[in-house]
């Protein structure tokens, strides 16, 4: 590193916190700005893939997250009426011992936030940043017209609703996707479920129900599951108007084993309505500005790559700044290092999502009768395993990371799995 930079990071989510750790450890003067009065996680559960886990390992936080999450070896989906398997992805289809780690978002946030606080990194809360003035250095503007800075670099980690990405070299806004989902974090009820698998049930492509074991939100906490039900956000009000009991009966008709989870839901207030959009910035940077995570690229969670992509962005930006003393050069290197991986998975997500979340009757027919069969024939199982792991396109070499030997790493969990076929 040629000199110590003054860097502002907008957003105290996983992307912003991971970036803060990397850049602070590289010797830069880092300030994190968060619009909420108290930084906190948003959402239910997610799967940390080998990509995201590699970044956490590089940050020295792998052991901390392993003790909280639930090891995932398999993604399994079945038709709700016939029970036929229409999705079966196994990480061990490829050698190397890879696995996913399902976690509560609060667990991931907590591990990163505690590390940031322990490092003494400044976090300023209650600051809603809406504008950027860039010249020789950059100044940030909040909703009250107050400024902050100057900074040598601003990192936009404010997510899919970013107000700063409009300052990118080629701005773009997400295109809303038709389907979203109700999500809830509930107590884990294991009977009939596999604690090492994401299990899903489908009714054509317009209904997808999922149960994901997500470990504990905090050390010593209750084991939890993320429960989700796909629907159009435009239909959410009508679903609520028909009443909670009517919705539960619909879920039970499609997947009776979910009764122990539905019994924990007493109100629609326990369900969070998630809305999704799709966009990919051609250049995730502007003058004195780097854009990472969902602010730079967002899509359906079908392939489960969102948080992992954000963590890779954080590592890539840090590596680019380390290798290039000039900020402008570093931003170009950062964008180039992530371009192929990001665009590949954005395209794959856009291609696969309609098979699982759409109004189509033809696509689920193809999925159930052709895709499920083809997925059993090599090399399809290996390709699917790489796709889910996030490694179909190598994301590591260009950003200076080395993937751990997963055969030597095991989550600190002892559980008995229930076989689901």
From TrEMBL:
Keywords: Monooxygenase, Oxidoreductase. Transmembrane segments: none annotated. Residues 5-343 form the FAD-binding domain. Gene3D superfamilies: FAD/NAD(P)-binding domain. SUPFAM superfamilies: FAD/NAD(P)-binding domain. It holds the Pfam family FAD_binding_3. It comes from the Bacteria. InterPro entries: FAD-bd, FAD-dep_Monooxygenase_BioMet, FAD/NAD-bd_sf. GO terms for molecular function: FAD binding; monooxygenase activity. The keyword Cell membrane does not apply. PANTHER family: MONOOXYGENASE (PTHR13789), PUTATIVE (AFU_ORTHOLOGUE AFUA_6G14510)-RELATED (PTHR13789:SF309). This is Glutamate synthase. It comes from Mesorhizobium hungaricum. The lineage of its organism: Bacteria, Pseudomonadati, Pseudomonadota, Alphaproteobacteria, Hyphomicrobiales.
């Amino acid at each position: 590193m040629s000199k110590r930079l003054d860097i502002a990071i907008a957003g105290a989510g996983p992307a912003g916190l991971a970036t803060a750790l990397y850049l602070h450890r590289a010797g830069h003067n880092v300030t994190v700005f968060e619009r909420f009065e108290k930084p906190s996680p948003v959402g239910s559960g997610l799967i940390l893939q080998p990509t995201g886990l590699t970044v956490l390992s590089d940050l020295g936080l792998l052991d901390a997250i392993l003790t909280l999450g639930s090891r995932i070896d398999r993604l399994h989906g079945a038709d709700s009426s016939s029970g036929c398997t229409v999705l079966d992805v196994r990480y061990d289809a490829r050698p190397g011992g890879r696995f996913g780690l399902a976690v509560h978002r609060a667990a991931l946030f907590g591990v990163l936030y505690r590390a940031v606080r322990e490092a003494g990194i400044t976090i300023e809360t209650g600051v809603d940043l809406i504008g950027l003035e860039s010249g020789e250095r950059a100044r940030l503007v909040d909703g009250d017209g107050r400024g902050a800075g100057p900074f040598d670099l601003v990192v936009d980690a404010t997510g899919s609703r970013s107000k700063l990405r409009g300052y990118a070299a080629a701005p773009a806004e997400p295109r809303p996707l038709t389907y979203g989902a109700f999500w809830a974090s509930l107590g884990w009820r294991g009977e009939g479920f596999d604690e090492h698998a994401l299990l899903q049930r489908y009714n054509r492509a317009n209904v997808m129900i999922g149960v994901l074991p997500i470990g504990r939100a905090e050390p010593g906490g209750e084991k939890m599951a993320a429960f989700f039900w796909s629907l159009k956000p435009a239909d959410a009000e009508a679903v609520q108007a028909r009443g909670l009991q009517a919705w539960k009966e619909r879920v039970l008709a499609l997947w009776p084993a979910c009764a122990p989870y539905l019994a924990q839901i007493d109100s629609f207030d326990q369900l969070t309505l998630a809305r999704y959009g799709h966009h990919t910035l051609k250049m995730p940077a502007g003058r004195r500005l780097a854009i990472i995570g969902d602010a730079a690229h967002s899509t359906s969670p079908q392939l489960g790559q969102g948080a992992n992509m954000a963590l890779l962005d954080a590592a890539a930006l840090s590596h680019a700044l380390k290798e290039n003393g000039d900020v402008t050069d570093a931003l170009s290197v950062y964008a180039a290092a992530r371009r192929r991986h990001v665009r590949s998975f954005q395209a794959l997500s856009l291609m696969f999502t309609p098979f699982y979340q759409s109004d189509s009757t033809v696509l689920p027919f193809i999925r159930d009768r052709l895709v499920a069969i083809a997925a059993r024939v090599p090399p399809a199982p290996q390709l699917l395993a790489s796709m889910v792991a996030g490694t179909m396109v190598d994301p590591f070499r260009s950003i200076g990371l080395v993937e751990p030997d997963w055969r030597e790493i095991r989550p600190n969990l002892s559980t008995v799995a229930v076989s689901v076929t």
